[in-house]
Sequence to fold (86 residues):
Amino acid sequence: MTGSVRQPPPVLAINMNQPGSFVHWSIFYVSVANLVLIAVMVVIFGAALLLPFPKGHSIEAAAAGGGPSRLPTPRRGAARSAGTTS
Fold:
């Protein structure tokens, strides 16, 4: 292998060889990276609260004409245990 030239490693977008930057607000002292992470987590939490839950298969059943699926109602004597007599 003659003449092989070694390429330098790729340059990172952020220089990691310097001290981090911090935000100081009253008694709070937090790095900017952690502050960005906290902000992203708050946005995801807010989206989870505001976005609707998926409805499941009831939409497909209503479109087919079956209406919403419901569980059958129990009969009057079905709730009693087998060992009791009346």
